[in-house]
Amino acid sequence: MKYANLNDLKMINEWMESRALPKIPEWSLPKIGFIVEDVACGFLIYMSNECGLLDFFISNPFATKEDREDAFDAIVYELEDLAKKCKLKILFANSKIKTMKTLAEKMGFEYMGEYSEYKKEL
Question: Out of 3.30.365.10, 3.40.630.30, 3.10.129.10, 3.40.50.800, which CATH number does the structure's domain 2-106 have?
Answer without folding.
Answer: 3.40.630.30
